[in-house]
Amino acid sequence: MKFQMKINFPWSRPLLACCFVMFALTAMADSFISFRQQGGAFPISTASQMSGICMDAHEKQGVKRAAEDLRKDIYTVSGRSPRVCCQGEDVVRYPILIGTYGVSEAITRLAKKGILPERSLKGKWESFVIKTIDHPAKGMERALVVAGSDMRGTIYGIYEISRQMGVSPWYWWADAPIAKHEEVFAKPCSVESGEPKVKYRGFFINDEFPCMTTWARNKFGGMNGQMYAHVFELLLRLKANCLWPAMWGSFKEYKPLVPILKDENGLYEGNCFNEDDPENARLADEYGIVMGTSHHEPMQRSQQEWIRHKKNYGNGEWNWLTNKNAIKRFFREGIENSKGYDKLVTIGMRGDEDRPMTDAGSREANFRLMEQIISEQRKIIADVTRKPASETPQVWTLYSEVLDYYDQGFKVPDDVIVGIVKERLAEPDCAKGFILDGMPRTIAQGEALEQMGVEIDKVVNLIVEDEAITRRMSGRRVCAKCGASYHIVNKPSAKEGVCDRCGGELAIRKDDEPATVLDRLKAYHEQTEPLVDFYRQRGKLAVIPFNDSIEATTAEIMKALEA
Predict the structure, then answer these.
(1) CATH for 26-192, options being 3.40.50.790, 3.10.350.10, 3.40.50.620, 3.30.379.10
(2) Under 8 Å CB-to-CB from 14, ≥6 apart: which residues?
(3) pLDDT tens digit string along 521-543?
(4) What's the pTM value of the predicted model, to 2 decimals?
(5) Per-residue pLDDT tens for 431-450?
(6) Which of 80, 99, 115, 278 would suit a FRET pair with 327, their CA atoms being 20 to 30 Å apart?
């Protein structure tokens, strides 16, 4: 979903200026916070009883930091501040017991005993359980337990308590008021969040100059760690986990109402997440935020980094054809600098300042060049991380030209295709069988299916000459208005070039143009045709000869499948 908002903010803090929203929140937990005493309620903050916040000393810093935020939130709501301690340091009768499965000894023990649902924690992604438990450990009368499957799961559970107490995720950015309450309780509860339906959820700070850039410079001295710490906290309170940082700076041609910003060298200031403040990347990792890049900023590098340092990279041209080795070095440095951090690596390449890539001379040359660029990028990822490229999450940035590339037979990496198919085949509607159309396309994909344990009963190979395929596909027409399909020979419209259904204009699709068909046929013969022998050797192949009759071809296919 693409959501853009361009707003001038009168408040003290800009609301992240312009965002590219790409997250879906985890389902909200059932309400368990109360502001009055009820039977069996856990006292978070009362006049007579104050809870404490306890966790294992081995918890990651991100969990400890979120626990401190919870302490502040309880104080803001109730006017009382609980103690924060590590287990064993102090005895707390009524603790908010926080921990991550596999890290916290207490949480892992409770799960192993079945007191906490281990199925909701072990091996899960960003899940949490919140449960009231009597006598969870020695000296503890009763506990409100927050258990996470991993660091972010634990953090989300912590912030769920804050949210239910009335602390808005936007309390700082939008000055969202927080209601005061004399007492705060947790009702007896057992809440299981489940895994998020969308794995990576976050936003993209966009069009931040001059509003946000100027504000950040005046308040924090720039788009630095002090500013980003507030962004990271917001993301986690929203149960998001990733960020594409600010990328635009002040440019010469832009004429804002505020002075154009320049750096110490007189260059127009831009936003370089990794360079502007060494704390940015470290803090993102500490908070648990997965960093990516947007637009035309591949391989964990920003365009402004290239602008600042391009004189150090070959001839300084952002052009793969004329400066390939230097750009490869630039890409490698990005992956090396982010080694050890969670990241979504943007791959692909566009032209300077997010324009189309430099023309390689022809449509085919352009998409073959893009295939080469992506192949080189994935080699770099594998080399630097010392693990298959498929194990590093990646995002493609090809923008408007991608459809043209795809129409011409652009080859998607096998591991990407296999991963998509694997996820789809796990859905309940595939349990009793499925049909794969156009997959596998390569030997590697066929082998990957076997490694996944996917049992293929029959492979149908339709034998049609290239000439007949070109003739058939080039004769197809589609209504530009309603999408109805025709063929100039087999299914012509009553009036040439006009849709029978709505009167719209009939046109040939780009992927049905003869030149495109020939390109795709070439890719078929090189990449897919070897699968014929692959499945023949396994006794799975059914060969269906050419026949102009659709009915006859269908009958032959059904006969082969029933055999």
Answers:
(1) 3.30.379.10
(2) 173, 211, 212, 215
(3) 887 888 888 898 999 998 888 88
(4) 0.78
(5) 888 888 878 888 888 888 88
(6) 278
